[in-house]
Predict the structure of STAS domain-containing protein.
Amino acid sequence: MTSPAGTIRLYRPDPNSICESKRCGRATFTVHPASPGRIRIAAYGDVDAVNGRALGHYVEAHTGTSQQLVLDLRAVDFFGTQGFTALYYISVQCTRRDVDWMLVGSPPVHRLLRICDTSSELPLCTDLASALARLDQITQCRGRIASAG
C-alpha cells in the first residue's frame, strides 16, 4: 500500500506563516512584511539563555520569504550572550541564503555588541530609518550591477 503524495517544505517557510508570532521564555518574536521582498522581525522582552537559540531559529525559518531582513531589537529589555550567539547564527544563515539584513538594537543590545562585536562585523544601525536606507542602497547597487553585467 502506498501513502498519498504530498508536499514537505524544506528550507522554505510556509507563506501563510508570514504574520505569525511566537512567545518563548520572556520574549516574543513577530514577523511583519515591510515591503515586497523585505520583512521585519521584531523581538520584545528579554533575549537570554532560555530563548536565544529560539530567536536564531525563528529568523532562520522566515528568511526564505524575502531578499531583505530588518531585525528589530529596539524593544529588547535584556540581551545576554546567547543573544549575541543568535545574531552570529542569523548572520551566517542570511549569508548562506543571500539575504541582506540590518539590525536595529536597544541600549542593552548596543552595550553587548560593543563588548562582543569589537570589529563591528554585524550590520548594526542606530535606528529603523537608517536600516531601511542602507537596505535601499544595497538594492540600488545590485540593480546597477545587474544592468551593467
